[in-house]
Amino acid sequence: MCLAAMLVLLYPSALRTTGTGWALAIGKLGAALGPIAITFALRAGLAKEQLFYRGGAAGLWRRCVSSLSRKRSRQPHRRLGRASTGRP
């Protein structure tokens, strides 16, 4: 549930519920399919060490792709509604 609290910072208010819903759904899908994929890989004869290496490589790849996409889109999100002046 920590993820849901942090997603407030990532998505603009107009997309917050949709973005949070998608993020949580993808997380649940990964939690359901991960053990199944590991079972198939182990039964296919893949060594346990190779699973760790491939998982680490996938995480590294995801980090590189995400940092490259952030560099491309340096434009700040537009906020919908009135701009806050900081005064009460």
Key terms for this structure?
88 residues, flat
Give an overview in words.
This protein has 88 residues and is an all-alpha fold. It has a domain at 16-72. The protein has three helices and no strands. The longest helix has 28 residues, at 16-43.
The beta-strand count equals: 0
Strand content: under 5%
Which structural class should the secondary elements be placed in? mainly alpha
End-to-end separation: 32 Å
* Pattern of helices and strands: HHH
Mean pLDDT: 79
As residue ranges, the low-confidence spans are: none
What radius of gyration results from the CA coordinates? 19 Å
Biggest sheet architecture: none
Helical percentage: over 70%
Number of helices: 3
Shape: flat
Record the SSE blueprint.
Layout: H1 2-10, H2 16-43, H3 48-72
Can you describe this structure in just a few lines?
Helices cover 70% and strands 0% of the residues. The chain has 88 residues and is an all-alpha fold.
